Structure formats: C-alpha cells, structure tokens
Amino acid sequence: MNQPTPAIVTQNAARPLPRWALLLLCLAYVVPGYVGRSPWKNADLTAFGYMLEIAHGHTPWVSPLLGGMPPETDGPLPYWLGALALQWAPAGLAPELAARLPFMALLVLTLVAAWYGVYYLARSPGAQPVAFAFGGEARPTDYARAMADGGLLALIACLGLAQLSHEVTSYLTQLAFTTFVFFAAAAMPYRTWAPAIAMPLGLAGLVAGGAPTLAVLFGLGSAAIALWAPASPADRRRAWPWALAWLAAVLASAVLAWALDLWAWRIETPAAPGAYASSMLRLVIWFGWPAWPLALWTLWRWRRQIASRQGRRHLLLPLWFVLVTLGATFTTQPADRALLLGLPALATLAAFALPTLRRSISALIDWFTLLFFSASAITIWVIWLSLQTGVPARPAANVARLAPGFVPQFSALALAAALAATAAWCALVWWRASRNRAAIWKSLVLPASGAALGWLLLMTLWLPALDYARSYGPQTRQILAALGPQPGCVLTHGLNRVQVAALQFHGQLDLHPDITHPLPGCAWMAVGSDTPELPDDIESPERWHLYAAIPRPTDKSERILLLRRAD
C-alpha cells in the first residue's frame, strides 16, 4: 500500500512541549546578549553610532551621516527604530540598552512568527500523518502544534543565529520581516487578517531594511506557490484574491524602494570562484547546523510529495525561501548576513524531518549534541574558574596573552544565571535519557537547549572578557587619558565608521571630520593608522606632531594616532 505521506505519528507523540519550558528557553536565548554588554565591533557599534547621531539631531533621518560618511548598508529602518527608542527612552536607561529594545522585540516576533509559520504549514492536508486503520493517529491541530515546537527548536539550535540576532543592525530587521512574509504565506488558507497585515508589512520592512530584491522575490514566490500548490483543491479559488493582493504589495514595495533610492546592483563576482565556493560551503555547514542535515533528510523522505500535484505546499514554500537566501549568500556580501534570512525556512524543513526519523538517527543526534555542548560548557566553566582563581593556570595565561591588560571581574548575578542554566541542562539530559519519551520534537530539545546554554554562559561568565576584546571601550579610555581632562574639539582624518562611533559614544568627544578647514581651537587630531599621510591642503602640516599611537589591546594593528598641534 502506498502511503500518502511518510509521516507516521501517534497521538501520544503529538503532545506539545510544555509552554513554560518553551517560554523559559526563549527567554534564556533572547535576553543574554542584549542586556549588560557594550556595543561590539563592527556592524553593531557602527549602527548604534548612526542611531545616536539621528536621535541627537546631528544628521538627517533619511540620509544619515556618521563622521561625514553614509552607512555601508542600505535601508534606514534600523537606524530609525534605534533613534526613536533613544528619544522615547526614560531618563536613566542606558542608551545602548534603549536602542536594543525594539530589536529585542523583533527577535521575539521572529520566533513567534516562525512558530506560527510551521504550525499553519503542518495544518496542510498534505503534511498530515498517515491515518491508522483503527484510529490513534495524531489529531491535526495537536500534530501541527508539536511540529511548530520542533520548528522553533530547530531555529534556536542554528549556530549562526546567536550573535547576528543580538545586534542592532539591518540584518535582524531583515530576518524579522522575512519571517513575517513567510508566516503570511503559510497562514493564508486559515487566517484572513493576520496574513493581510503581515505580508505588506513584511515586504515594506524588507525594503526599508535594505533588501528590496529579496522582498520582490519572496513576494512573487509566495503568490506563485499559493496558486500552483494550494493547501487543498478547495483553496485554489481562495488563493487567487490573495495572490493578486500580494502582487500589488510587491509592486508597492518596489515603488517604495525606488522612492528611497535603494535599488542597486549588489552581485559580486569572486576573484577565485573555487576557493570562494569552498569558503561559502563551510559557512553554510556550520551556520545552519543542525537544521540543514534534517532539511536534506526532509527533501529525501518527502520527495514523492514534492513531485506530486497536490500536498506539497508545506515543502515548496520553505524551499523557495531557502533557495533565494542561498542565492544571495553565494552572490552578495556579507554572505553570513544573507544566509541569516533563510534560517526560519530551513528550520521549517528540518521540522518535517522529525516524523520520519529513525530511532538510530535520533540517538545519533542526541549523543553528538550531548557531547558537543557538554564539552563546550565545561570549557567555558574551566576558563572562568582559571580567571577567577588561577587554577588551572594555563587558561588564564592564554587570556592574558590574547587580551593584555584585561582584569577579571566577578558578578554574583552572572554566576547565579550560569549555575541555573547548567543545572537545567543536566536535568534536561537526565530527562532525555529516560524511557518512553515519544514526542516528535524530542530530537531537537538537546540541540536547542545546548545552543541556548552555550550562548547564556558566554554572555554571563565570559562577558567581561568578550567586552574587553570586542568593544572599543579600552582603546577609547586610553585615548581619553592621553587627551587629558579638557581636550576640546578633535579633528579626525582616516577614521572608519566604527572608530568614529566608538570615540563619540565611549569618549563623548567633539569630533570634526573636515580637517581641510580645521577649527582654530582644535589642538588634537585623531588619525587612522591606515592613513599614509595627511592631505597636502591642511593648514601647515609641519605644525602637527605625533603625540601617541594607541592600539586596541586585542588587535595591535588597529591603532589610532593622536597628533597634537605644535603651537
């Protein structure tokens, strides 16, 4: 007998993940990385610098400048969000935390939209498990809820999501609005108002976030799949009005991109295609782990449904989003930021592997995850203990060599959070090792929890060291010490965007980038170390002399030269 789908799921296996456990996991993943740290190099601090300039009224909203330089990434939306948050934040709230609040909300909405996207795709008739002869198969809504839990776990487990989803950049806004578009296309057969709002909002957000081409491709693909692969024959007539409305939204988003002057040729041809392809392949392998092996398994086990005329919507929709983002990854820069947008769809494909996994494959995933994340957690704890106590001595010596001048700090709150997360991991491993755990999402509990554990430990135990290594605070403090208590205005030449943002945020310095007409009262000049020489038309170059060359403690090649006026 030919099975209509490869999924065989009992009602007992379709039980949902407890809501309290899912909420705690999301909380442990979202909050660390947004609270308590300084802005990091490069994109995170640069974007924050533009937000500060807009919020303080130093630059226009539509075409912001930082040190006289426009943004490297197109799309003003993330700068607007951060600037509005800075202006509306209550007094006393740290500006870096205030600017992160809307991005924290975007990450939460990304997780919510991804969950509902998988849920509605799993509700599709073609995605349902096999009906048993005497009953006992999973009920449609229970099955869809369990599959959505698995999809969310797969998304959190992706290694490439952690850092990029905790930065205040355009890439997180693009991820969030891509997930909105994905949710709208998935929910169309079952809901009216939510898809009607999410699709145009997602397309407009993608455009304003700097990805107009992806907005057009996602919108056109969603409309085509709605017509070509409806959830059921009865949904074909319902799909026509939706497809036309989405095409109109695509056209409106293209007009918006033209109005904001965001259309640009972004495809880059690599100088060495072979080496470039190998590098990109390595990026895809670690960035999407462990979702991509499960996604490939889904495509293999559901291959007959993909080739059929009906029942393939739950596969074609995420597959289209993955293919578009893979195309952007291999043809545009930065590649990892483009690949980020495909993670929700990749996690969706991974979720549909869960009802078809053999017990041996599930056990392999569990053992690999247990060993990898347990070893990672032990390493983090050992290095932290070495920094705090000096035992063992070698890890602390390595940190001192890599980050000279770093002084370890102790935080009782960070230690309590790390201990609680480690205890929860041990309890989860014990639970997973017990018998009669039939839930279909069980194979992704350890990967998702391990990823959240590693991220939380890094953002608590290692946060002082990471702040010292990845922020510009230590270098800026050395510059302030060299300038003295009242430096006045400081001319700049050859500084990049992140250096300007660091001096303005950490140092609160009055910078003036136009050194061709220097202010008479400026006695200092900050020069980038890559600048070969000062311009010829500066007033009396011989009247400036090198006062100090101050490197970043963890990167001696990244120096800022301080010049002082001789008179």
Question: Notable features of this structure?
Answer:
23 helices, single chain, 567 residues, 3 domains, mainly alpha, globular, five-stranded mixed beta sheet
State the low-pLDDT regions, or none.
Answer: none
Secondary-structure element sequence? HHHHHHHHHHHHHHHHHHHHHHEHEEEE
Give the overall shape, derived from the CA principal axes.
Answer: globular
Count the domains.
3
Beta-strand residue percentage: 5-15%
Distance between the termini: 94 Å
Sheet/helix structural class: mainly alpha
Total DSSP E strands:
5
Query: Could you give a short account of the major beta sheet?
Result: 5 strands, mixed
Query: Fraction of residues in helices?
Result: 55-70%
By DSSP (H or I, 4+ residues per run), the number of helices equals: 23
Report strand order across the widest sheet: 2-1-3-5-4
What is the average of the pLDDT values?
91
What would you say this structure looks like, in words?
With 567 residues, the protein is mainly alpha-helical. It has 3 domains: 16-39 and 73-356, no CATH class; 359-470, no CATH class; 473-565. The protein is built from 23 helices and 5 strands. Strands 2-1-3-5-4 form a 5-stranded mixed β-sheet, covered by helices on one side. α19 (412-433) packs antiparallel against α20 (445-458). The protein is globular. The mean pLDDT is 91.
